[in-house]
Amino acid sequence: MPTIAASFDQECASVAMARIAVYRADTEEGSDVLRWLDKMLIRL
To answer: Do residues 21 and 37 lie in contact, with contact meaning Cβ atoms separated by under 8 Å?
Structure first.
């Protein structure tokens, strides 16, 4: 059961990061968004 809970948290974090990345891509310059996304995914 702990494996399922850990996977769920990672999946939710991935979905949240994707939504934030799409928003930032719409509102900011592309290269800045890619740099930010790389940094955040490494941290995640």
So the answer is: yes
